[in-house]
Amino acid sequence: MLCVVCCWHRVESLGAFYPRAHTHLLPAVTAPAGRNTYTDGPPLRNEMRLYSFRFGCVLAILSLASISWIISIPSNEGSAAPDLQTLYRRLLAAEERAGQMGRDLRSIVERLKNMSRAANSTNSTQPPRNISTANSTETIGLQSKNAVPQMFLQPNIYLYLPHLRLHPDSLLPNVLLGQGRRGVSIVLGIPTVKREKQNYLISTLSSLFYSLTASQQQDLLMIVFVAETSIMTGLTCGLSIKKRILNPRTPGWDPKTKNLTDSDYVASVAETIKTIFPKQVQSGLLEVVSPHQHYYPDFTLLRETLGDSKDRVKWRTKQNLDFSFLMLYAHDKGRFYVQLEDDVVAKAGYFNNMKTFATLNDSKQWLFLEFSQLGFIGKMFRTGDLPMITEFFLMFHKDKPVDWLLDHILWVKACNPEKDAKHCTQQKALHKKRYKPSLFQHMGLHSSLPGKVQYLKDKDFGKQALYQVHSNPAAEVSSSLKHYQQHSLERAYTGKDFFWALTPIKNDYILFNFTQPINITRQGRQVLGPEGGPQRRYLFRSGNIETSADKFYNTTVEVLPSYASARDTRVAASPSYYRESYKGFIIICAFVDGLAAGDIEESLQPISALRLLVHSDADVWALLSEILIQV
User: 224 vs 148, 199, 362, 547, CA distance in Å?
Assistant: First the structure.
């Protein structure tokens, strides 16, 4: 009987080992929210419960078989005591079988542990298919001494924004306009949102396009990120930019469209940009994207921190998410990335200055270059650093504003906690380099945060060159256009100011009557233009860096030859090239993208007058920033 009890105890201890190990594995598999873990669990857990049931049955059968086998040992009829030697041999055999079964059970339990770890890592961290993120989930297996793999998980965007798991496509950008340009030197990121008072986006884009040469446009990518979705109602107020775009001097609401949904607003921004800048969109220079409607979390769950109001906490949290989305979208499209805002003005030549400065410092260790001292405007990063930066922003997106988080990254990378603040400041200065003068100026008065008015100005930006000065021949100037304030045509012609006129209508003109007939020929000294290229013998540039939308459209350049015979002869010889206008003038050129420049044929010279003639009503004011007539 003692032997039977000992055998049962050994079998019972082996059977108890598996349930304890199995119970230890259960927490490792996390069931999705709203799901009963033990009744509706994943297939792996059901399989584990089936293993448990089978092993219990096996143990019970083996235990009963062992007891029956021991009890059924034959005994000598003539002796009251069994053959103890035979019983001892059979007990040894049973113990050996029980030991082998225990080893098999431990091996099976270890395999189940590994299967549970792998399933837990897959179910809890694997991103949806076909989603491109900078911080993809990655499982690393580390081999220990006993060759049992131990699983560690790298962090990813789903840990910081868990609501994205519910929508597999929530990280796919909605590309509204674009040609998929890549491999450029500089990528400009411009987030934009609806504003209560005034929208500055078109003025910002016009300023950025104004001074670019053809080669620079091929080496640049601008990404406009319209940071609005259909779930953002209540955070920002509706604003139609259509009226503002058609007439930049009309800053108010359009009452007919103030109730636009966010999806309608996004579409209207894309359509307006496509209408105003068709060449830039078609060439791939300009892209417009927006986030998925489920990208943003529920902002009502945010807690107030840093003494900020709830609206301000929402605003700064959304800004962190906007910048992160834009950086992740742009990180593989170029060599350097520059963060801008939708209410800035750029200095002429900004692209060449940024590229040269970044190339000179490329071999040095820096986190970002500064081309403006205001907030996050004009901060340049290497695109290879963007995944690390965005992960930091996402990690603390609910805690602090984005410019504070950038400073914290600098502190982590540069500062020694055992040193004083002065040493920290010195070390951080090595990881950021400042370019002077600033290349971008903040121009917006009304912030994207409703109700906030800001008067931020970069003192290092200096004054913009709003017009070019040239020495022109003596002439009597006149115009049917009414000039604005002191910006008269006379001051512009003599190089003292630019000419700024109210909205032109059909048949408005600007007339230069020369005191004596002049010859504008192709011979003579070559003059270099402001971008270093050859300058034409006559040139009229409309718009400037601050009001680049105020250009002449559907306007021709016309000359009046001094001799009627010369006029008649030349027009008759080249009817397809020159066309006669009224009052004896001949059309020689037309404004294209705000510029009219060229030479005048010898056969038309000398000329006694030159005229700019408007052929249709305009939607915007007109500005002449450069007048050149070289003799």
Answer: 50, 14, 26, 20
Helix/strand/coil for 113: helix
The verdict on residue 555 lying in a domain is: yes
Q: How many domains does the chain have?
A: 3
Cβ proximity of 607 and 499 under 8 Å: no
Asked whether residue 197 falls in the same domain as residue 275, the answer is yes
DSSP codes joined into one string, 493-527: HTTSS-EEESPP-TT-EEEEEEEEEE---S-S---
Q: Which CATH number belongs to the domain containing residue 318 in this structure?
A: 3.90.550
Q: How does DSSP assign 537-593, residue by residue?
A: SEEEEE--SSSTT----SEEEEEEES-HHHHHHHHHH-TTT-EE-GGG-EEEEE-BT
Whole-angstrom distance, CA of residue 121 vs CA of residue 368: 35
Distance CA 599, CA 585 (A): 16
Which structural domain, as residue segments, surrounds residue 338? 164-386+433-442
Q: Over the stretch 284-316, which tens digit does the pLDDT of each residue have?
A: 999 999 999 889 999 888 888 888 888 889 989
* Integer Rg of the chain from CA: 39
Phi, psi torsion values for 143, nearest 5 degrees: -85, 125
Is residue 257, in this structure, part of any structural domain at all?
yes
564 and 611 both lie in a single domain = yes
335-360 pLDDT tens trace? 999 999 998 989 989 999 999 999 99
CA–CA gap between residue 538 and residue 225 (Å, rounded): 40
Please give the structure tokens belonging to residue 506.
């059909």
